[in-house]
Amino acid sequence: MRIAALLLIVALVGDATWAQQAGDFEDNDFAEFEDFDDDFVTVSPGAPAAGQASQKKEPEPVNGDFKEIDADDGDEAVVEDEESEFEHFHDEEEFEGFPGGEAPPSEGASLDPKAGEPKLTMAKVPMHFRTHWDSYWMEMIMIAGLLAYFSNFFMGKSKNTKLANLWLSTHRSLLEENFVLVGDDGKLENESHGLIKESESTFTLWCSGRTCCEGMLVELKMIKRQDLVAIIAGLLRPNQDQVHVKIEMSRDVMDTFVFCVATKKTATKMFKEQSDLSKFCTLVNKSEDKYKVPLGFCVLSELPEASSGVLDSRLIAALNKYAPLIEYIHVSDQFCGVVQQEDPANLKQPEVKRMLMAGFNLPPNIDMETAKPLLVLVFYLMERLKRFRLSKESKAKADKNRARVEEQFLKNTHAARAEAAAQRREEKRKAEKERVMAEDDPEKQRRWEKKEQKRQAKKKAPKMKQLSIKAL
Question: How far, in Å, are 87, 281, 327, 349, 377 from residue 275 at the CA level?
Fold first, then answer.
């Protein structure tokens, strides 16, 4: 019985102990980590036993290193040097211009994380442009201007090409009736048979193969619609699309005279710029009453007979009907272009041609059929000039005018021509002297020097006139 009671007491005590341990394990979830910490306890030689671990002091930080101090005063401490969290501030490769190689702070100094930090300068980055649209108004205006300019360029270029092709398609049948070759581009084999584009606003057409003329050049000068600046300037000074016709007449077909009928503004400009009009013609006052031209036109005439012969009833009727479209009609046998600056070195008169020229404005409503009769008028003038002849008195006056212009030219260039003649004589004497000196004939050289001395003496001698006196 005693044994049984003893076993029962032992069993009860064991159950109670086991239940207490199980409850402690469940209440402390981190008990296993306490065992883990006990395994890593640092024990130095001569340190106290495990039961004396409560006397161990906590590590104290000194200069970023942690030093474990044992409880015994006489024992050496074990120091573990760990990398400081501010060690990268002393790295020479981390910062440019940061002084390296300085001695680390002493152990007794206090740790200041900002003491050794370099001074960093942050760049001032502007805010995103979406938050400050008003800061880019200049760039916006420039971009808008460029877009407007290029848009206007392509639209204006397309419209000018369209108008030029429309003019050609309207007048092609009339041109082919009067010329064998329409659209000659100067090549042996004409491939295009159409307009030649000189620029974005200028187109040319060359026609040849007709009697009484060498050829006809048609030049279409459109408004510079591709140029936005020209469009803005056109608002102040309006201009129109124009057609300029230049026909080189045959030499034996047209008589010798100069004539022009044009609007007053154009006539004044041409009289100042064109060489033949400024030399041979005069501005006729009251042209409306004398020649029956429409109001606003004036006549530049060399011979009254020639002006009356060209301004017949048919031309007067065309001027009255198409006055807004006709700019000028110019007929000349002395055409040489614009007035040139007087050049004393120019010893030759400019080459002249017999020309029939006309300038017309295209209708603003792009109705090319309205401008078709103007080209018919040009062909009529060609036939009119072919049949027209001056009287003997007018012919003599025209020849006298041309002799006067030639004499004036010779007078203006007399000094230059004399200087050029003297220079030619001097060059001729030098060439003769070199030729004589190159020969091995002393006698011939002596005769040439004697001849040259006589010439020089005669040149220096005073000039005297010989007078003859008749006997009484």
Answer: 94, 10, 19, 12, 25
| Rounded Cα–Cα distance for residues 234 and 222 (Å) | 12
First to last CA, the chain: 215
Give the contacts of 71 (CB within 8 A, at least 6 positions apart).
48, 52, 55, 56, 57
pLDDT tens for 320-330 read 999 999 999 99
Q: CA torsion 105→107→113→114, rounded to 10°?
A: -40
Q: For residue 80, is pLDDT > 80?
A: no
- Residues 372-387 as b or e (16 or more Cβ within 10 Å = b): eebbebbbebbebbbe
Does the pLDDT value for residue 52 go beyond 50? no
Residue 458 pLDDT class (50, 70, 90 cuts): confident
DSSP code at position 104: P
In tens, the pLDDT along 415-452 reads: 776 777 777 778 888 887 787 777 777 777 778 788 87
**pLDDT tens, position by position, 254-295:** 889 999 999 999 999 999 999 889 989 888 888 888 888 888
- DSSP letter at 366 equals -
Q: Is 358 helix (H, G, I), strand (E, B) or coil?
A: strand
* DSSP letters for 297-355: EEEEES-HHHHHHHS-HHHHHHHHHSTTTEEEEEEEEEE--BPPPP-TT--SPPP-EEE
Q: β-strands 213-221, 242-249: how paired?
A: antiparallel
Phi, psi of 213 (to 5 degrees): -155, 155
C-alpha pair distances (Å), 397 with each of 82, 274, 335, 336: 123, 21, 18, 21
Is residue 157 classed as helix, strand or coil in its secondary structure? helix
d(C-alpha 118, C-alpha 221), whole Å: 73
As a whole number, the mean pLDDT across the chain is: 76
